[in-house]
C-alpha cells in the first residue's frame, strides 16, 4: 500500500503542482483515504505485476456503499466522485446517487460490474489557460482485464468483447491463451482441429475456422491431388494457416506425394497449428527465427508425416522459397500477395487464391473494386462471372510482371467466396499471350447485352456497332458502359476438371462432386444428359497448357514435362494439330431465363428450354454462377426468340407447351417476368436438378426486375 501511495503522489507531482501544506494535510488523512487512494492509483503500476481490481469494479451495489461507510462521519462522500463534483451527504442520498449515476450505466462481465468513475484516474486535456487542475474531470470506465480506461460505455463493451475473442480473460495486462477446457475439436474430412468457441469471427480470433468454406477446401484439395499425380513430390504452401486445417488435410491424405508448409504471422496461430499437428499425429518441423529449434524433427530428417510450420509474413516466405503449389486465402482481397506468389513459383506449378471481399467483387462497393483490382464493374445479371474475370485479370497482370503466363484451370464464384486456380507458364511468350486476353467489356444498360471489345489499339468511330443489339439507335443518349479490364479467355480446363472429379470420387468428397460435374458440363457447354465420367479412346489424353496429360482410364504413356523446352515444343506442335478435333472453348457469360421472360407468358421448364436451344443449333449448358442461368453462344435476341417461341400465355396454362402465335400487343423486348412462372420453374428446378446446385444457389440468383 505504501508503494501505491508513493506512486500516486509522484504522478501527481508530475502533472499538477501541489503546495507543501496540502501535501502535509494529505499525509495526515492517509489512514482514512488509503483504500480509495490505493485502488484508484493501480493504473500507474507496471502491467507486469498482478493487481487487484479497481474500486469501481464491484459485484453488488452494497459493496460500493461499504466503501463509503468506512468514514465515521454522518455525511459520507461518494467513493467514485471527487469532492468538488459530489459533496458528502447522508446515506439515503448517497444510495440514490450511486444507483442512478454509477450502477445503472455499468458494464457487466462475469458477475462483476464496471461502474463509471469520475476520479482523476484518467488524464484530461488542459483548458485554454493551460491549467489542468481547473479542467473538468472526465468520466470513464476501468477495464477489469487490462489497465485501460475507456470513456464511452459502447466502446467499453467492444473493448471487453475483443479481450474475450483473443482469450485474454485474466485480470492483468498480459496476453494469455484460453484454457484447454475452452477449446473444442472440429472434424472435417478425417482431420481434427482445435478451435476457440468464437472461431467463426475473422480478425477477432487467431483460430479462425469457417465451416461454410468446406466446399472451397475440397476443391483446392482436388486441384492439389491432380498436381501430385503429375510429379512427386511437390512442395505446397498454405500461406495463411489459421488453424492449419487445409495443410493437415493435404498431408494426411496425400502423404508422401506432398511436402506441406503451413505459414502464419500470428504467434498464437502457429502454436495452435503445432497442437493440431500433434492432435492428428503429425510431426512438426519448425522454421521460426524467434524460437529455438528444439521441436525440429531429429537431425533435420523428414518423412511423410512431417509438416513444416513457419511464422513470418506471407510475402516474405514466398520470396525466400520456391513452391509447386501455393494457396492464398487472406481475410479479404489477395492482390497484395500476387507479386510474391508468382515470383518464385515453379514452371507448370499452380497458384490458387480465394477472395472473400465479395462486397467489392459483386459490385456493392465499386470504388473498392477499382482500388484493389483496377477494374470498373457494375451490378449486372452476370455479376458473379464478372467478379471471377476481374480477379483473373489481376492475376494475369501480376504474372506478366514476372514474365509468366497463366492458364485458368478453374474459376468458381459462390455466395461467400471467389476461387481461382491457375497454372503458371514461365516465359515472355506465354506472358504476352495471357496479357492479350485482358480486354474491356461493352455492356448495354438497357437489354444487358454484352461483348468484349475487339483487339487492337485503334479508336473506333462508333463502338456501339460491336454490340449485337440496336438499343443505341432506338434509345436516346448513351446506352452502354465500358467495364473492365477483364479476362476474356476460358474460365475452365475440361481435362483438369475431369481429373479433379476422379480425385473427388476417390477420396469421397461428396460436396465437391456435384459442383465438379456442373463445371465439366459448363466447360464443354453441354447438358448433363450428354455427360459421362467414362471417357473412351483418345479423349483420355487431355490438353493442358499445350501438354497432353493422361487421365486414369488411359493405358498409354503419361506425357509429363519438367521444364524441358524441347519436349514442350514437340507437345505444343502436336496440340496445334489436335485442336481442330476438340470442341472450342465455352462461350463467355450467360443469360438468366427469369430476367428475360415475357410479360403474361409462362416460360418452358429449364431442362426443356435447354433442349429447345440445342435443337435450334446453339451450344447451351447450365452454369454454376446462377441456378437459372443459361450459358450459350446465341445472342440475346436469338435467346429471346427461342424463349418466346416455346412460351405459353398465362390464361391457357394447362395447354401443352409448344410454339404459339403471340398477339400483336405482346412485345418481345419486355422483360418483366411472370410471377406464377417463377414459382413453377423453381419447383421444377428443385425436382429435376441433377447437378445438386439448386440448394446451394437458389437463394442468391439475381432479382427479376428489368434493367433500368
Could you characterize what this model shows?
With 708 residues, the chain is of the alpha+beta class. Among the domains are: 57-124 and 137-166, no CATH class; 184-287 and 305-453 and 477-495, Vaccinia Virus protein VP39 (Rossmann fold, 3-Layer(aba) Sandwich), CATH 3.40.50; 591-649, N2,N2-dimethylguanosine tRNA methyltransferase, C-terminal domain (Phenylalanyl-tRNA Synthetase, Chain B, domain 1). The protein has 23 helices and 25 strands. An 8-stranded mixed β-sheet has the order 10-11-9-8-12-13-15-14, sandwiched between helices. It has a 3-stranded antiparallel β-sheet with strand order 1-3-2. The protein has a 3-stranded antiparallel β-sheet with strand order 17-16-18. A hairpin with a 4-residue loop joins β14 (404-413) and β15. α7 packs parallel to α8. The termini are far apart. Residues 26-39 have a biased composition (Basic and acidic residues). It is found in: Nucleus, Nucleolus. This is tRNA (guanine(27)-N(2))-dimethyltransferase. GO terms for molecular function: tRNA (guanine) methyltransferase activity; tRNA binding; zinc ion binding. Belongs to the class I-like SAM-binding methyltransferase superfamily. Trm1 family.
Amino acid at each position: 500500500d505504501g508503494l501505491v501511495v508513493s506512486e500516486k503522489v509522484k504522478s501527481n507531482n508530475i502533472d499538477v503542482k501541489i503546495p507543501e501544506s496540502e501535501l502535509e494535510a494529505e499525509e495526515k488523512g492517509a489512514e482514512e483515504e488509503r483504500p480509495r487512494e490505493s485502488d484508484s492509483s493501480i493504473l500507474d503500476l507496471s502491467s507486469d505485476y498482478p493487481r487487484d481490481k479497481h474500486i469501481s469494479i464491484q459485484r453488488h451495489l452494497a459493496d460500493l456503499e461499504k466503501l463509503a461507510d468506512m468514514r465515521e462521519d454522518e455525511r459520507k462522500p461518494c467513493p467514485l466522485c471527487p469532492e468538488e463534483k459530489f459533496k458528502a451527504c447522508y446515506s439515503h442520498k448517497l444510495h440514490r446517487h450511486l444507483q442512478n449515476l454509477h450502477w445503472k450505466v455499468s458494464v457487466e462481465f462475469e458477475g462483476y460490474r464496471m461502474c463509471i468513475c469520475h476520479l482523476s484516474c484518467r488524464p484530461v486535456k488542459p483548458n485554454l489557460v493551460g491549467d489542468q487542475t481547473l479542467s473538468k474531470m472526465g468520466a470513464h470506465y476501468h477495464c477489469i482485464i487490462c489497465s485501460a480506461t475507456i470513456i464511452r460505455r459502447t466502446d467499453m463493451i467492444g473493448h471487453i468483447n475483443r479481450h474475450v475473442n483473443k482469450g485474454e480473460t485474466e485480470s492483468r495486462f498480459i496476453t494469455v491463451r484460453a484454457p484447454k477446457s475452452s477449446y473444442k475439436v472440429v472434424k472435417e474430412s478425417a482431420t481434427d482441429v482445435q478451435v476457440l468457441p468464437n472461431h467463426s469471427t475473422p480478425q477477432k480470433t487467431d483460430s479462425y475456422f469457417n465451416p461454410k468454406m468446406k466446399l472451397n477446401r475440397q476443391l483446392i484439395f482436388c486441384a492439389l491431388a491432380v498436381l501430385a499425380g503429375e510429379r512427386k513430390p511437390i512442395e505446397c504452401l498454405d500461406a495463411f494457416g489459421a488453424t492449419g486445417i487445409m495443410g493437415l488435410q493435404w498431408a494426411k491424405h496425400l502423404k508422401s506425394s506432398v511436402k506441406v508448409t503451413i505459414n502464419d504471422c500470428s504467434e498464437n496461430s502457429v502454436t495452435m497449428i503445432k497442437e493440431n499437428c500433434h492432435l492428428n499425429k503429425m510431426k512438426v518441423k519448425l522454421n521460426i527465427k524467434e524460437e529455438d529449434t528444439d521441436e525440429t524433427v531429429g537431425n533435420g530428417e523428414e518423412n511423410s508425416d512431417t509438416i513444416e510450420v513457419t511464422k513470418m509474413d506471407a510475402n516474405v516466405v514466398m520470396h525466400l522459397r520456391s513452391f509447386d503449389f501455393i494457396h492464398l486465402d487472406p481475410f479479404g482481397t489477395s492482390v497484395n500477395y500476387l507479386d510474391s506468389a508468382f515470383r518464385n513459383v515453379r514452371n507448370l506449378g499452380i497458384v490458387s487464391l480465394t477472395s472473400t471481399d465479395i462486397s467489392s467483387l459483386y459490385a456493392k462497393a465499386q470504388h473498392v473494386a477499382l482500388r484493389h483490382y483496377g477494374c470498373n464493374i457494375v451490378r449486372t445479371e452476370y455479376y458473379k462471372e464478372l467478379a471471377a474475370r476481374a480477379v483473373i485479370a489481376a492475376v494475369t497482370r501480376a504474372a506478366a510482371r514476372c514474365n509468366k503466363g497463366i492458364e485458368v484451370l478453374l474459376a468458381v464464384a459462390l455466395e461467400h467466396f471467389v476461387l481461382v486456380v491457375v497454372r503458371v507458364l514461365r516465359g515472355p511468350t506465354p506472358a504476352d499471350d495471357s496479357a492479350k486476353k485482358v480486354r474491356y467489356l461493352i455492356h448495354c444498360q438497357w437489354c444487358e447485352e454484352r461483348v468484349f471489345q475487339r483487339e487492337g489499339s485503334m479508336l473506333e468511330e462508333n463502338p456501339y456497332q460491336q454490340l449485337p443489339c440496336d438499343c443505341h439507335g432506338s434509345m436516346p443518349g448513351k446506352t452502354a458502359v465500358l467495364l473492365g479490364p477483364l479476362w476474356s479467355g476460358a474460365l475452365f480446363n475440361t481435362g483438369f476438371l475431369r481429373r479433379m472429379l476422379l480425385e473427388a470420387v476417390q477420396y469421397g468428397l461428396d460436396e465437391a462432386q456435384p459442383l465438379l460435374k456442373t463445371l465439366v458440363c459448363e466447360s464443354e457447354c453441354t447438358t448433363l444428359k450428354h455427360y459421362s465420367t467414362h471417357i473412351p479412346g483418345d479423349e483420355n489424353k487431355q490438353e493442358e497448357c499445350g501438354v497432353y496429360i493422361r487421365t486414369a482410364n488411359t493405358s498409354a504413356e503419361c506425357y509429363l514435362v519438367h521444364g524441358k523446352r524441347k519436349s514442350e515444343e514437340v507437345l505444343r506442335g502436336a496440340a496445334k494439330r489436335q485442336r481442330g478435333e476438340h470442341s472450342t472453348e465455352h462461350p463467355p457469360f450467360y443469360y438468366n431465363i427469369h430476367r428475360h421472360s415475357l410479360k403474361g407468358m409462362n416460360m418452358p421448364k429449364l431442362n426443356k428450354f435447354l433442349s429447345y436451344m440445342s435443337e435450334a443449333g446453339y451450344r447451351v449448358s447450365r452454369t454454376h454462377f446462377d441456378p437459372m442461368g443459361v450459358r450459350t453462344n446465341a445472342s440475346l435476341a436469338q435467346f429471346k426468340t427461342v424463349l418466346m417461341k416455346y412460351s405459353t400465355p398465362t390464361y391457357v396454362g394447362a395447354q401443352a407447351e409448344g410454339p404459339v402465335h403471340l398477339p400483336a400487343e405482346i412485345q418481345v423486348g419486355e422483360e418483366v417476368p411472370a410471377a406464377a412462372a417463377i414459382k413453377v420453374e423453381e419447383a421444377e428446378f428443385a425436382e429435376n436438378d441433377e447437378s445438386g446446385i439448386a440448394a446451394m444457389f437458389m437463394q442468391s440468383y439475381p432479382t427479376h426486375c428489368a434493367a433500368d
